[in-house]
């Protein structure tokens, strides 16, 4: 599914990013641009690789102990990453429950999220948004317990951070909260900031929700990876591979 969506990227996609910045400049503080984090502004594969590597070292699974980000073709396909590290199908299924439990204890934490790296062009694009005077709202399914690590990772990667200009970070109150429901609730908060002119997300469900709630906005899908749910993107949504948009 993720690879299929990458075929939506069309020649000239950079013009969409440039036109969004132009509109933000014309509206200034009246404009709101919303950005997801994981697989949108951030590549989580270094975090994923670290967790799988630490599992391998802790449990003496030598091949997993050598896991690197390139083994994760998709940030959501743990079994695929284990296979690419060299495990047989039988070994993958044998270790998977323990790996999954090990992963759950670590992935949604400050200690591990600092390993994320910025998507190509993401840092410069967030600063270009801030320079327009518009509101930049990070709207993420990460929970409040990850705020410190998330902000630190933004700093490390050179992104605009909350508190600079009109930069906001909207996070789930609790890890137990549903991502879809939280993002829909966040729509109202975005509307209170001003006019939502653009939204960026890798998850088709969330991109579609943005367009239905803000039909006049430009909704941009990051063709990186996603959860694999069989959701069809609405036709009006533009897919881009990253944020480097200069000719």
Walkthrough of the structure:
- With 247 residues, the chain is α/β, with parallel strands linked by helices.
- It is 43% helix and 16% strand.
- The strands form two sheets. The chain has a six-stranded parallel beta sheet, with helices on both faces. A two-stranded antiparallel sheet has the order 2-3.
- Helix 10 links the parallel strand 6 and strand 7 (218-222).
- The chain is globular and about 60 Å long.
- 39% of the residues are buried.
Kindly provide the name of the CATH class of the largest domain.
Alpha Beta
* Number of contiguous helices: 10
Count of DSSP strands: 8
Q: Overall mean pLDDT score?
A: 94
- Might you state the CATH topology name of the largest domain? Rossmann fold
Task: Provide the gyration radius in Å.
Answer: 18 Å
The strand line-up of the biggest sheet is 5-4-1-6-7-8
In angstroms, what separates the terminal alpha carbons? Answer: 29 Å
Structural class: alpha/beta
Strand content: 15-25%
Secondary-structure element string: HHEEHHHHEHEHEHEHEE
Specify the CATH homologous superfamily of the largest domain.
Answer: HAD superfamily/HAD-like
Q: Which runs of at least 5 residues are low in confidence (pLDDT < 50)?
A: none
Shape: globular
The CATH architecture category of the largest domain equals 3-Layer(aba) Sandwich
- What percent of the residues sit in helical stretches (DSSP H or I)? 40-55%
Domains counted in the coordinates: how many?
2
Q: What topology emerges from the helices and strands here?
A:
Blueprint lengths: L1 H5 L7 H14 L3 E5 L6 E2 L1 H14 L19 H7 L4 H16 L5 H4 L3 E2 L3 H10 L3 E9 L3 H11 L9 E6 L6 H15 L1 E7 L2 H10 L4 E5 L15 E3 L7
